[in-house]
Design goal:
The complex is a heterotrimer of chains A (770), B (155) and C (92). Chain A is an alpha+beta fold. Chain A contains 19 helices and 33 strands. Helices cover 14% and strands 24% of the residues of chain C. Chain C has a five-stranded mixed sheet with strand order 2-1-5-3-4, with no helix packed on it. Classes of the chains: A alpha+beta (770), B alpha+beta (155), C alpha+beta (92). At the A-C interface, strand 7 and helix 6 of A face loops of C.
Chain lengths: 770, 155, 92
């Protein structure tokens, strides 16, 4: 990256030191004097009417200061959209999933609070439950929400072009049923919050949230408080990955209510068991996919029917189903596309967003089917991708998909080329195909993900740059670093734009009393949108400094440049002064200015029509190609992935270390989904509710990973950037599935591919032992 | 309640604890050292790793009373004031963390690994850290950090 | 007269078309939402006033109702199209 002082450099993370010293404080690390502990009492049934709740015995237990139930919230409900606010903080009238929160206790210590929960007597009338989304939509299924008597939470029917004609003129057409698995974000830090409701009508909360401003609005609405009296002070976040920490959970509302009732600060920390059994998880979906291809391997059309398991409440479901369809025309040209999707309510914990939101289900189906069709035609997987892949548009040109997504840069083909030149793919014929009972295989995938997500009102985000009198800089942002490294990137952007050194920037984390609004971390929007806001705020502050200097140097402000911490005249660089001195002059001369730069993201508003599918929810899209090499033990069915090569087009990698780390982590999370992770559920009950049994990849399970940067310089991102956080979680399962096919000859269509499924498939297929 | 003498990061503490209190509870709540984290609470994730004697242990499943008379090292005991331990430096330079929640535990496990084995192979590094779960990084830059730390500690 | 209703999000409770006698935009909204699940969000239960802010962007024949000269009192004509665009506000 020529010409930049900081952008593109491998600077250390801005918060690295606090983290390695154990000084970074997370929600659970905070305490206040007189603090009480909150524990939540939960339903033992997945579907039941609540008849009576008797909290008297709990209230009498020594150390218990308050007990609350659903009625304390006065019928208030929340949701992602105003039309689907169907979720109460504590169950009211009935419970709709096992362990749904029914009551909460505040006590002087955690053990007493837990004991008190056991003393709360709830009389339930158990109701028949329904646990499978297709069953839930059948006539006669138990109704979960009265306002959706057919249990259909969301339904879309989109139609672009003419798929029937497309299939009629195709050389071959395939129809397959695919299924994604029941997986969860897997963050290591359970949700927690410390809340204090000041009797004067002012709430201060320290919650583990990657979208603190959503929680701020939830609390304002729930407690009928004006927004300016709800203060969220953000701690460090121990992992987000979407879903739970972009939303509020029962504990969050309970601690505020309990604090209101007791006049004391109240804290809750969920256990990992509560996380695994009740927190938001990815929707698992059934994808009935149909794809046609010409004799030359060109995709003619895709018809996809998707059924999503929504769980007990709506939450962000409407967006999930929208994204699931929206991503299908990427990254391969698709002229005809029909999408029919249903999200069904079931008596399971709520399904919501998770990294790779939506796109991942249909991409898994389409990438696999594209390879199946190509194989039939004798076209190799790289060739079929090159023939169908979207080409990188020329500067000024835009490629538009049938559903209205505009692509200005597309590094797909460059990424595919890059991974095929690396040894995992290039030397695959030379490396061993078999070693004892282990058969090796190599696979490739090429995928895309949305970045800079913005939908009406939802993307308002701002930044403030405050130049201190000694030339050091405070960056106030509403954006949240949940570990992905956005704080580092925003500081880099601010420093580059202002012309100061990276070390001169101090980023101030979210405090809704002082920082400007920002929707938070999701849809890979922070670098693109909060980054733009930061860039504009820095430019605004810089302008003020330049104007002050211009007076002192009797020059035009446009004649002055600031770089590397020094201001100098463009026409005579020897005339220079340190930024520190320039800042002092700007602050002290004349009437004494306060240098405050402000900026907000200005990417246009676009209406997305969820009903027709037309619209563009992202500012730009990333493209990822990945190869995977793995070995399958045909005797035990165990899969061991040895290598991943990932080439990711993030426009411009502003902080290459973070882009690599995000790709590495996303690929491993995708690997988990592909072969390891699965909630084993029976009638709404989760059987594997510990980290040992919900198996996520450990250090001994991960492959060697190499990440290659593909640079396309997108016109819509600060310094040309696009998203770098979700591409590889979409590319990874597809690459693994393709590698499994190479090793075993089997196309696995149901995730995760467990050893049992491998053995069963090999038996049915009749594998070559020699 | 039981009386307990704990030696943590070189300092002695005389405290009273519930008989069933875990070492993690005591470190975090009584001593205010919040670097060790509670992830799973049942000894499966390593977020609560501390060094007891010469072993890396999951403090959430060690009873506080078991720690009597042992030297405990938490993450707060590694740096010398402002000066980072070479392992901490290596993690910062290589970018071996993202959200940082697993980091204290990961670093302490690394310390025990490198003190027992100055030049671990890639396989030995993977096995040495298998008790520390990380969801963010995919472990790749953690391995790089450990290799860099081994190099630094040799010098 | 026939009024067409378009929405940008899935709202099974809102019909695609409404037959009504002479009336204003307010009359149409009251007819669509009074007594409905979303009634309190659209019509202030205390004053009976249309209370749209924060829920939908309302447009009549592609013109935002804020910009209509007569606002919600605008008389409707046969073939008019009412568009309800959801304002998506996370946490809202």
């Amino acid at each position: 990256m020529e010409g930049y002082e900081i952008i593109g450099k491998r600077v250390p993370r801005i918060d690295g030191k606090e983290k390695v010293m154990g000084q970074a404080k997370y929600a659970a690390d905070y305490s206040l004097p007189g603090m009480l502990w909150c524990k939540v009492a939960r339903s033992p049934f997945p579907h039941a009417r609540i008849l009576t709740i008797d909290t008297s015995r709990a209230e009498r237990l020594k150390g218990v200061k308050a007990v609350i139930t659903g009625k304390d919230f006065g019928g208030w409900t929340w949701g992602f959209m105003a039309t689907t606010r169907d979720e109460p903080p504590l169950a009211v009238g009935k419970v709709r999933y096992l362990y749904e929160a029914v009551a909460a206790v505040a006590a002087t210590d955690e053990d007493i609070a837990e004991e008190a929960c056991d003393l709360i007597r709830v009389d339930y009338e158990e109701l028949p439950g329904v646990f499978d989304p297709e069953e839930a939509m059948k006539e006669g299924a138990p109704v979960i929400h009265d306002y959706r008597p057919n249990n259909v939470s969301v339904e879309y029917h989109w139609n672009f072009g003419d798929v029937e004609k497309a299939f009629a003129r195709s050389h071959i057409v395939r129809a397959d049923k695919f299924a994604s698995g029941k997986v969860i974000t897997g963050f290591l830090e359970p949700p927690a919050s410390l809340a204090y409701y000041d009797p004067s009508g002012y709430v201060t909360v320290r919650p583990a949230k990657q979208s603190p401003y959503f929680h701020y609005r939830h609390l304002a609405a729930c407690f009928n408080l004006p927004l300016n009296r709800v203060r969220i002070i953000q701690p460090f976040i121990g992992g987000g990955f979407g879903g739970t920490k972009n939303d509020s959970v029962a504990g969050d509302f309970c601690v505020v209510m309990l604090s209101k009732k007791t006049g004391k600060p109240v804290k809750y920390i969920y256990t990992m068991e509560e996380v695994l059994t009740t927190c938001r998880r990815r929707h698992n979906m059934i994808v009935y996919n149909k794809m046609g291809m010409t004799k030359d391997g060109i995709i003619t059309g895709v018809e996809t029917r998707v059924v999503g398991n929504g769980g007990a409440y709506t939450a962000i479901g409407p967006l999930t189903m929208y994204l699931t369809g929206s991503g299908v025309p990427l990254p391969y040209k698709l002229p005809n596309f029909k999408f029919d999707a249903w999200r069904a309510f079931t008596n399971n914990p709520v399904s919501a967003a998770m990294r790779g939101h939506g796109f991942i289900h249909t991409r898994f189906a389409c990438d696999a089917q594209m390879d199946m069709l190509a194989e039939e035609l004798g076209i190799d997987p790289v060739e079929v991708r090159m023939r169908n892949g979207i080409d990188n548009p020329k500067p000024g040109e835009v490629y538009e998909t049938v559903n209205g997504i505009g692509i200005k840069t597309c590094g797909l083909k460059e990424a595919i080329k890059a991974v095929t030149e690396e040894s995992v793919w290039a030397d695959k014929e030379k490396t061993a195909k078999q070693a004892g009972p282990v058969r090796y295989g190599v696979g490739i995938s090429g995928t895309s993900y949305q970045g800079g997500a913005r939908q009406l009102g939802h993307q308002s985000c701002g930044a403030i740059i405050r130049v201190c009198e000694d030339g050091t800089v405070n960056l106030l942002t509403g954006a949240t670093d949940c570990g992905q490294g956005s704080d580092t990137v925003l500081a880099m952007i601010a420093a580059e734009e202002l012309g100061v050194r990276y070390e001169d920037i101090s980023l101030k984390r979210v405090d809704t009393a002082y920082t400007p609004v920002d929707p938070g971390s999701y849809g890979s929007r922070v670098t693109v949108l909060a980054g733009q806001a930061t860039q504009l705020a820095a430019r605004d502050a810089k302008k003020q400094i330049l104007e002050a200097l211009a007076k002192v140097w009797a020059a035009g402000a446009e004649d002055i440049e600031i770089k590397g911490g020094f201001a100098f005249l463009r026409s005579n660089p020897d005339k220079r002064m340190s930024f520190e001195k320039a800042a002092k002059i700007a602050c002290y001369e004349g009437s004494g200015a306060v240098i405050l730069g402000t900026g907000h993201s200005s990417y246009g508003l676009e209406t997305i029509n969820f009903n027709t599918g037309i619209g563009n929810g992202g500012t730009s899209y990333s493209f990822t190609a990945q190869t995977a090499r793995l070995g399958v033990d045909v005797e035990t069915g165990k899969i061991h992935v040895t290598h991943f090569t990932i080439a990711h087009d993030a426009g411009v990698p502003l902080h290459p270390v973070s882009v690599e780390s995000q790709n590495e982590g996303g690929a491993v999370q995708g690997l988990g989904q592909a072969i390891y992770e699965e909630f084993v559920m029976e009638k709404g009950r989760t059987h594997n509710m510990t980290l040992l049994d919900y198996k996520m990849p450990r250090s001994t399970d991960v492959p060697d990973i190499k990440v290659i940067h593909v640079v396309t310089v997108d016109p819509d991102g600060p310094f040309g950037a696009k998203e770098a956080s979700e591409g590889s979680i979409v590319s990874s399962p597809s690459a693994v599935i393709a590698a499994l096919h190479d090793a075993t000859g089997v196309w696995f269509k149901e995730l995760p591919v467990t050893p049992e499924k491998v053995i069963k498939a090999l038996k049915e297929k009749g594998a070559w032992i020699k | 309640m039981k009386s307990l003498r704990l030696k943590v990061n070189g300092t002695s503490y005389a405290i009273r604890v519930k008989a069933q209190a875990t070492l993690l509870d005591v470190i975090r709540e009584e001593l205010g050292l919040t670097g060790a984290k509670e992830g799973c609470g049942v000894g499966e994730c390593g977020a609560c790793t501390v060094i007891m004697g010469d072993k890396a242990v999951n403090a959430c499943i060690v009873l506080a009373v078991e720690a009597q008379g042992k030297e405990i090292t938490t993450i707060e005991g590694l740096a010398d004031g402002d000066k980072l331990h070479p392992i901490q430096e290596a993690f910062v330079e290589a970018g071996g963390m993202q959200c940082g929640f697993c980091t204290p535990g990961m670093i302490l496990s690394t310390k025990v690994l490198l003190e027992k084995n100055k030049a671990p192979s890639d396989d030995e590094i993977r096995r040495g850290l298998s008790g520390n779960f990380c969801r963010c990084t995919g472990y790749t830059k953690i391995f790089e950090s450990v290799r860099a730390a081994a190099q630094k500690m040799k010098e | 007269m026939r009024i067409r209703i378009e929405t940008t999000v899935n709202m099974p409770e809102v019909p695609e078309e409404v037959e009504m006698g002479p009336g204003t935009l307010r009359d149409l909204l009251v007819r669509l939402f009074v007594g409905a699940r979303l009634a309190d969000h659209i019509i202030d239960p205390a004053t009976g006033e249309i209370k749209m802010e924060g829920l939908f962007n309302v447009a009549l024949n592609d013109v935002s109702y804020h910009s209509l000269r007569e606002g919600v009192e605008t008389p409707l004509q046969d073939g008019d199209v009412l568009t309800l665009s959801m304002i998506l506000l996370g946490g809202g």
